[in-house]
Each structure stands twice: as C-alpha cells, then as structure tokens.
Design a protein that fits this description.
This protein is α+β, with helices and mostly antiparallel strands. The chain has four helices and eight strands; from the N terminus they run H-E-E-E-E-E-E-E-H-H-E-H. The longest helix has 27 residues, at 214-240. It starts with a helix and ends with a helix.
C-alpha cells in the first residue's frame, strides 16, 4: 500500500473519531434534598445524541448511613439544571431517601428530544425481597458483630470514638453505578380533523345552494291536502241533493 494512501486513511479515521467525539454530550444529574440549601452532583452521564449510547463517568449518591434511613421521610429532588441560569432552569423529579439504599438496585431514566437535548429525568430504587432464612442469618451476624464490638469497648480494646465504625463500614458498600436508560421522546398521535368549512363573503357555506322556503319544501304536501279537501267537499254536495 502506498504511503500516501495509508496517510489518507489515517487522516480520515482521525477525522471520523473527532466528529464522533464532538457529538457526545455530557450531562450532570444533581440530587437536592429538601433539607439542603444547594444541590450536589449525583451522576455524570456521557451519551451520544444519535445512538443514545451512554456511559456513567461518576456516581455519588446521598449519604445513607443506617437502616433507619430506609424509613426516613426525607425527600430528595433529582434533576438537572443550568448553573449559569440557576434553579429556575431546574427540571427533574422527587423521590425518597430510601431509594438510595445501597442494597437496592437503581435505575436512572433520562428522556431526550429529537436533537438529543435532555427533557426529563427520574430515579428509582428497587429492593429485591430476601429469603426469610437469609434474613434471619443476616440479623444473627449483625447481632454477633454488635456484641463483639460492645465487649471490645468494655475491655478498652476499642476507643469509644471508634464505636460504630463496623456499622459504618457495613454501610460503606461498593457504590455500584445505577442502570441508565436513555430514551427519545416520541411524537404523540394527532387528532384526525374534518376538512375546514369554507364560507363566502355573505357568510354562507360554499358549495351549498340557497336554503329553500317552507312552501318550496312542502308544496307537494299542501297540494295533496287541497285535492283531498276538494274531493271530500264535492262528495258531500252530491249526497245533499
């Protein structure tokens, strides 16, 4: 293969790569608890507006420390906005803090328009039901760990300042990235309308003749009535003679 041809192919390949890379868009999804004064980054997504192929480059869920958080009424807003515009450009949804339980499976859904611009986002957490036997075994393990920690604290082997460290480590599980679903908005069905009515300058519908009068419509009925009356009157005169 000539050197010039090989160089041309490399240049074309590099151009295609640059064009493809330039098409990718990056979007930061934020989490904003109602008790917080400002939002914090939740996830950073990089997606192709054409193919909708998505990569999660960062994921930092809200702090979830204890099992009591699973029953917390804390509401967390999840969405995106333009920091230059401010909260007025916020677009998103709201969910409970329990949705971010590390033991749950998470789904982050993003909807984009035809041009690939983000329009809406939602976040869901799904807890798989545990087998009752596995649940009892987990409770026993936690109880044994708690007793060992209490015994170690009583014996002075573990300072009180480090108490609860095991519980913290238990909850510091690997933060697996959520499943990400990017869908494109679809055009809704349009109603089927009849043809518009066209009227002329006089306000009448074009293509229709002038409306008939009462006599023009029912002249035949009046004629039959008169004939019947004439025949009936003539027969009565003959009987009188």
């Amino acid at each position: 293969m000539p050197l010039s041809l090989l160089s041309s192919l490399i240049a074309i390949s590099a151009t295609i790569t640059l064009v493809t890379a330039s098409q990718s868009q990056s979007l930061t999804i934020w989490n904003w608890p109602l008790s917080a004064s400002s939002p914090s980054p939740l996830a950073t997504l990089t997606y192709d507006p054409l193919t909708l192929n998505t990569t999660t480059t960062a994921y930092t869920p809200p702090v979830f420390l204890s099992d009591s958080d699973s029953k917390s009424p804390e509401i967390v807003r999840v969405g995106f906005y333009d920091p230059k515009v401010g909260a007025k450009s916020w677009s998103g949804t709201a969910t409970s803090l329990a949705s971010f339980n590390p033991q749950a499976q998470h789904l982050l859904s993003l909807t984009v328009d035809r041009d690939g611009e983000p329009r809406s986002v939602s976040f869901h957490g799904f807890l798989s039901p545990l087998d009752p036997r596995e649940e009892r075994r987990r409770a026993k393990r936690e109880e044994r760990a708690r007793k060992r920690e209490e015994e170690a604290i009583a014996a002075g082997k573990v300072p009180k300042s480090k108490a609860g460290r095991n519980k913290q480590k238990k909850n510091d599980v690997k933060r697996e990235q959520p499943m990400v679903e990017v869908t494109r908005m679809k055009e809704g069905k349009r109603p089927t309308l009849n043809k518009p009515v066209v009227v002329n300058e006089a306000g009448q519908v074009e293509g229709q003749g002038q409306e008939k009068t009462f006599l023009q419509k029912y002249w035949w009925a009046i004629a039959i009535f008169l004939v019947v009356q004439l025949l009936a009157g003539g027969a009565g005169k003959e009987e009188g003679k």
